[in-house]
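Worked example

This section walks through a single chain of length 75. The input is the sequence exactly as stored; nothing has been trimmed or padded.
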Amino acid sequence: MEQYQLLPSQGSWIVTAFIVTFGIGQTVFAKLSDRFEIGPLLVIGILIYVISGVCGVILQKWYAWVLIVRAIQGF
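Given that input, the structure is written out below as tokens.
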């Protein structure tokens, strides 16, 4: 965390944002999988994860954006 000049609490928020949105995303995915086929849902989920990962690399100097991107990845 020292290389990014983050406090431990800020690093914790990044992890927490991912975990909370991951839990919400699981519930949403379960409901969507009842209505739609799982294959296309998985492809959409992987695309969202990859795109937000690339955005996270590009925007890694701004803490707020890293927090937002990790929340999107969790979802």
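What to look for: The chain has a mean pLDDT of 87.
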